[in-house]
Specification:
Order of helices and strands: EHEHHHHEHEHEEEEEHHEEHH
Oligomer: single chain
Strand order of the largest sheet: 1-6-7-2
Length: 270
């Protein structure tokens, strides 16, 4: 399916991270990379780049698994499979691992993910963040009027009433201390992600959310968590930042289509 009109779509995660629209598209993660690193860093991992290499580490797998488990076991089962082998040293174990189409986790990794989810649900400040009437992992897709670029946002939880205050993202972190997490949020561009989601709801559903927040949880016991809420001023700051990154993306894309080599079209630190 090629998307040619704004809307809310139930897309497989690989389709979302690819290029599902009739024209080039970019999400908050790409805009953050362009702004906080450089266009060259974006191009190295971009779905527009046929030579891009997929990044995969144990820390990333654990974070994604915790994210899927918190959103509900069906979501987890769609994306992950638990290995019956502790190690992949034998021929049988290697053949099983290489035949999998889902991300492989070991049993001890799943135990950790379950412990994180249990701890999250036991903490009053965040226990109800991803519950109630709503849908996980819905894709908001629309075309930016100024640049013509297709934009993508994928809230972890989209409430049935999008005009309410909602928790957009689940983040695993070294520290969930609100003082540290608040500072880190802008270093990592979480404000960009939040602002893009708010604008996506407005563009695709015609409503203005009351507010937006991220749930941040630590990766080690006791797996403490906190709710990171964005003020209107912080969202406006994130909006200015993503608009700046979007204009850079559009400029790079124009040079790319004009035939400039990647090093020119997608330069390093500006």
């Amino acid at each position: 399916m090629t998307i040619n009109k704004p809307g809310v779509y139930d897309l497989p995660i690989d389709d979302y991270h690819g290029q599902p629209c009739e024209g080039p598209s970019v999400s908050a993660s790409g805009l953050r990379t362009i702004l906080l690193d450089s266009p060259a860093h974006y191009w190295a991992e971009s779905s527009l780049n046929p030579k891009a290499e997929k990044v995969d580490t144990l820390a990333l797998r654990i974070g994604k698994a915790a994210h899927s488990w918190v959103l509900g076991e069906p979501e987890f089962n769609r994306n992950f499979v638990v290995s019956p082998f502790e190690e992949f040293r034998t021929k049988e174990a290697k053949e099983w691992r290489d035949s999998q189409t889902r991300v492989v986790l070991k049993a001890k990794d799943l135990d950790m993910v379950r412990d994180m989810a249990d701890a999250l649900r036991a903490q009053p400040c965040v226990a109800s963040a991803f519950t109630g009437h709503g849908m996980p992992e819905m894709s908001l897709i629309w075309q930016d009027e100024e640049t013509g670029v297709w934009l993508k946002a994928r809230p972890d939880w989209l409430p049935a009433d999008p005009a309410m205050y909602f928790a957009q993202e689940y983040k695993s972190a070294v520290s969930a201390d609100p003082r540290k997490a608040s500072r880190q949020a802008f270093d990592l561009g979480y404000d960009i992600q939040a602002a893009l989601a708010v604008d996506g709801i407005r563009a695709t559903m015609g409503v203005e959310p009351l507010g937006i927040a991220h749930v941040v949880q630590e990766k080690t016991p006791p797996y403490a968590a906190s709710l990171l809420m964005f003020s209107r001023e912080q969202l406006e700051f994130g909006r200015r930042r993503y608009r700046e990154a979007l204009k850079r993306f559009a400029g790079c894309l124009a040079r790319h289509h004009a035939g400039d080599p990647p090093a020119v079209a997608w330069p390093g630190y500006l």
